[in-house]
Amino acid sequence: VQLQASGGGLVQAGGSLRLSCVASGSIVSINHMSWYRQAPGKQRELVASITDGGSTSYADSVVDRFTISRDNAKNSVNLQMNRLKPEDTAVYYCNAHGTVAGGLFGAVFSSWGQGTLVTVSS
């Protein structure tokens, strides 16, 4: 399964960006789609996650500012980021976890996108 992320860029503090990620391949189902980020010198952290049923979870640092959504028919996930702060600067990665075709019951996969850079200037 391949994930293609897009939408990063440079924005001033207080501004907004929308990240998108599309999964492709022999996908049977995607259980979870998530966004992670990794700032320079820091570990990768979970930003937001959404299940195929639409249940969402967020890191405390982005609650009420970021919104994750997905289109199951298109195997895509979006991250709407509002009121951005300089500390949101990082490379953002999408992740998908689900099942691909193969064998009798399919096979589990967990794939990462290539990362997209978000830079928030003060």
Structural commentary:
The protein has strands at 2-6, 9-12, 17-24, 27-38, 45-51, 56-58, 66-71, 76-81, 90-100, 107-112, 116-121. With 122 residues, the protein is mostly beta strands. The radius of gyration is 15 Å and the shape is elongated. The mean pLDDT is 96.
Major pleated sheet: 7 strands, mixed
The helix content, as a percent range, equals under 10%
Order of helices and strands: EEEEEEEEEEE
Radius of gyration: 15 Å
The proportion of residues in beta strands is over 45%
Strand-pairing-aware structural class: mainly beta
Unreliable sequence segments: none
Report the total helices.
0
Task: List its traits.
mainly beta; 7-stranded mixed β-sheet; 122 residues; 4-stranded antiparallel β-sheet
Describe the structure concisely for a colleague:
By secondary structure, this protein is mainly β. It is built from no helices and 11 strands. The radius of gyration is 15 Å and the shape is elongated.
List the helices and strands and how they pair.
Elements: E1 2-6, E2 9-12, E3 17-24, E4 27-38, E5 45-51, E6 56-58, E7 66-71, E8 76-81, E9 90-100, E10 107-112, E11 116-121
